[in-house]
Every structure is written in structure tokens, then in C-alpha cells.
Amino acid sequence: MRKLFLIFLTIVIGFASFAQKSKKDLMIQRKQRINALIKQEEEGVISYHKQTAFGIKLNSDGYGGFFELGKYKSVKKSLLFQFELTERKHSKEEKQSNVNIPSSPFIFGKINFLYPLKIGVQQQYLLGNKTNRNGISVTGNFGGGISLALLRPYNLEVNDMDKGGRKLIRYESSDSSLYSNSGRYTHIADSVLFTNSSLLGFMQVSGGGFSKGWNQLKVTPGIYTKASLRFDYGKYNEQLSALEVGVMAEIYSKAIPQLVYSKANQYFVSVYVSILFGKRK
After folding, report:
1. pLDDT of residue 255
2. Using CA of residue 249, residue 250, residue 251, residue 257, what is the dihedral sign?
3. Of 37, 110, 112, 267, which is least packed with CB atoms within 10 Å of its CB?
4. What residues contact 212, with CB distance under 8 A and at least 6 apart?
């Protein structure tokens, strides 16, 4: 029995020593690979050939996400192909709640949800390299592309004056009128509810919900350009981790209506900050 125990103990110690040696070898190999990458960067050799990244973005007028595919031309230059979808909110829109009935909040006077869909290309230039594997590299990005303004009509849920119950309405025209007879409302043009706040309680207005209006989607084409600085704090490995700050300008083929009581804009300028995560190969 004692002999078997000694044999078992010898096997366990052997496996532990082998595992420790293997772990040490992996650490040495990783350190050598990192040093080799640093040397390649210093000598101007392309360490990676392409990268893929996903990111989340916070604009001064909205939020969204994007996908990026990059191709390295040299250590200092890269070409980035980007696909981005965001939601733009008007600075004057404000959510309200109906105190008369339990309902979802609504935005008085809102005409459309605006989702800019962008497809573009950016040129990336290395401005400052990492001094060590735990440092930060800085790149300057500049580019642009096509921007498609996806407009989803904003729907309200209100009392149906003709058939009873509830119905969904959306803004149709700015010259809709309100008819009355002896002080009692006999007919209310749907669009009036987007311009006359005194009727909100009477009609018991509530928000139409996220699922409404997609079958009435409209597209307005445009172009955009943007410039940014990207701070890559990831180590010299296949993982990409970065923070980006920048400014963006967009112009569309026609003005984009968002709120009834605000002028429709054809030009948009915003600042943004993004967080990126991805891989290099």
C-alpha cells in the first residue's frame, strides 16, 4: 500500500512540474512575441493585416452602434470601412405622461423618429505609438460616406371619436383643423393633437410604442464626413480596445421633419465619444 502511495505521489509531482514548466514556457513565448511586435513597429514592419471591431457610440444628439473592418496599409496608415446605425433625438423633444389614465409616455409634437444609417470609409493615421506594451497609441481618423436618414412616423394612441375604443394616429399636415358644435367636440382632425396641448387630457393620449410605424418607413439620402482621435489602450496582441472622440457633419437632400413646432433641419453637426472592442489578425 505504501509503495502504491509513493508511486501515485511521484506521478502527481511529475504532472505538477510539467504543468508549471509548460505555463512558464507559454509566458516566455508570449513575452518573446510581444517583444517581436514592438521591434516590428519600431522598424516599420506591418504587424497586422486587418482588424474587425464593434462599438457603442454616444452622440451629443443621440446614441447607437457600429461595425468596423480595417485593412493595414503600413504601420502608420490603415483604411477603415464602417457601418453605423444611430438614433437622433431633437434637443427640444420632451417626454410627457397622461395623468388621466395609466399609459406609456409620449412626446408632444413629435413627427418622426430619425435613424441615420451610415456606410463610409475612414483613413487612419498613426500619430503616436505606444512606448511599451501597456501604453496608449493615438491615431487620427478622417473620412465620410453615404448617410441614409430612416424616418419612422411617430404614432400616438388616442380615443376613437367615431367608433369608440382606441386608435393610432400620426401627424399628416400642418393645416389640419378642429371643428366644434355648441362647445362640444364633434370631430377632431388627428393632426391637431400634435399642435394643441390642451386636447391631450380630453383625448387621453399615450405613446404608440416601439413596434409601430415601421411599415411606413421613409428614406432621405445624404452624405456625411467626420474627424476623430482614437486612443488605443490595448496591449500588443490581437485584442483591440480603444476610446474615440470626434465631430461629425451631415447634409441630406431635403429637410428632416422631427417636431411640429421646430424648423426641419437639412444639416446636422454633432460631437461623439465611442468605445471599441475587436481583434487584429
Report:
1. 94
2. negative
3. 267
4. 155, 168
